[in-house]
């Protein structure tokens, strides 16, 4: 495809007007102010459009779309134990398949090209991911509350399949990660066993870390160290890790994350809604910690519109720390794009640059909220809505365009999700 006469945000998120961008074989092949001589197939009219890298949602629980609006106005532990866990006990692979389809549809419509997910029911989830064409780093949520060995857990067999059968599927769009749900939902010996497996097979790790004050302080009481120090001591950070939330980091925790190259998946909407608190993002950025964006699940957000989290990421910390200079638009956009790609180990992605993957989204700028476009980056961060996304492309393949999907039957998916949620609620 050749995007013609289209405004772009370059590698530094600086606006360039009237550019031509050619994609070929899944890659960005040309960027310039003049039309190239080469034939790129379809020509896309870029008037009143802005082209930028697609977004990365680096912490989600996709099948939890089935729980949207169900577990509300409760602190995290009551939210989990009284609402979420009982509902999840009624789920199966078929429900997870349709729930994941719905999540992917929502993400594609908001410009998301890849997501990092932690959940169960991998047969259903992988089916939905592969059919859709989106990119995903998928991990199987692991929890254990007794003295079981890792090999005795259902998660162990699922992880063998994830790292073998599914890892690298669809030309690398699907990647298998390993997971520890959190310190408070695991045991030291299982944590060490998963860390050893990750090191042996070169897998990445996805965890929850210091999401709430209760979790953070209880870990200190149990182990005499913070969750970050605990995960370091048991080998989790010896492999590339995405740590979700990190709201209650303290003292040397920041140095630990920096030392090991841990990516923080910041989820501002979820953290605000569950009253978890404010992560010290300014300090993380000042230290050079890789900070990316996540929506969390649809039961705690309640949407998967990464643009909402982009906006909150850019404004919440200004208010909390009373400093309007914190989190520039460029830093926010980097967190939503390149930082997410790096967290997934996709080093050739997340940039609008020749030689990078053609993972792109197009925003309609002929709208009230984009008028006038005196600063395109500011407009995207502070004004853009999910409905402004007109096209989402993954590896050069258009998956969403002008309200329509090329790989998802949205009406069927919505009907299936409504049916399954109703059945589960009637059984609770």
TrEMBL record:
Keywords: Hydrolase. InterPro entries: Amidohydro-rel, Metal-dep_hydrolase_composite, Metal_Hydrolase, MTA/SAH_deaminase. SUPFAM superfamilies: Composite domain of metallo-dependent hydrolases (SSF51338), Metallo-dependent hydrolases (SSF51556). Residues 51-398 form the Amidohydrolase-related domain. Pfam families: Amidohydro_1. One of its GO terms (molecular function) is hydrolase activity, acting on carbon-nitrogen (but not peptide) bonds. This is Amidohydrolase. It comes from Agathobaculum faecis. The lineage of its organism: Bacteria, Bacillati, Bacillota, Clostridia, Eubacteriales.
């Amino acid at each position: 495809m050749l995007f013609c006469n289209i405004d772009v945000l370059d590698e530094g998120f600086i606006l360039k007007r009237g550019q031509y961008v050619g994609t070929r074989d899944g890659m960005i092949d040309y960027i310039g102010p003049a039309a190239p001589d080469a034939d790129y197939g379809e020509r896309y009219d870029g008037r009143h459009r802005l082209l930028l890298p697609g977004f990365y949602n680096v912490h989600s629980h996709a099948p939890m779309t089935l729980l949207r609006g169900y577990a509300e106005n409760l602190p995290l532990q009551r939210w989990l134990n009284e609402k979420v866990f009982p509902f999840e006990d009624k789920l199966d692979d078929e429900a997870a398949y349709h729930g994941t389809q719905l999540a992917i549809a929502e993400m594609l419509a908001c410009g998301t090209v890849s997501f990092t997910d932690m959940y169960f029911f991998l047969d259903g989830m992988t089916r939905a991911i592969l059919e859709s064409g989106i990119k995903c780093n998928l991990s199987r949520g692991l929890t254990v509350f007794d003295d079981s060995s890792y090999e005795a857990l259902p998660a162990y067999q699922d992880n063998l399949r994830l790292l073998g059968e599914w890892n690298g599927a669809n030309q690398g769009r699907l990647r298998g990660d390993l997971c520890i749900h959190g310190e408070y939902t695991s045991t030291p010996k299982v944590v060490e066993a998963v860390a050893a497996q990750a090191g042996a097979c070169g897998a990445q790790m996805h965890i929850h870390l210091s999401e709430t004050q209760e979790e953070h302080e209880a870990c200190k009481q149990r182990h005499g160290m913070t969750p970050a120090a605990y995960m370091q001591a048991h080998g989790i950070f010896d492999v590339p890790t995405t740590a979700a939330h990190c709201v209650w980091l303290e003292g040397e925790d920041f140095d630990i994350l920096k030392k090991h190259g841990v990516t923080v998946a910041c989820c501002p909407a979820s953290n605000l809604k569950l009253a978890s608190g404010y992560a010290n993002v300014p300090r993380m950025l000042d230290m050079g910690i890789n900070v990316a964006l996540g929506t969390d699940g649809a039961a705690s957000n309640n949407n998967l519109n990464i643009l909402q989290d982009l906006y909150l990421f850019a404004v919440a910390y200004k208010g909390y720390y009373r400093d309007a200079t914190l989190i520039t638009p460029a830093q926010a956009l980097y967190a939503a794009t390149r930082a997410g790609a790096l967290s997934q180990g996709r080093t050739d992605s997340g940039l609008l640059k020749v030689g990078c993957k053609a993972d792109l989204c197009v925003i309609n700028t002929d709208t009230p909220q984009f008028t006038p476009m005196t600063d395109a980056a500011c407009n995207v961060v502070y004004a853009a809505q999910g409905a402004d996304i007109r096209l989402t492309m993954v590896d050069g393949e258009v998956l969403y365009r002008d309200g329509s999907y090329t790989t998802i039957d949205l009406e069927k998916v919505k009907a299936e999700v409504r049916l399954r949620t109703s059945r589960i609620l009637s059984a609770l």
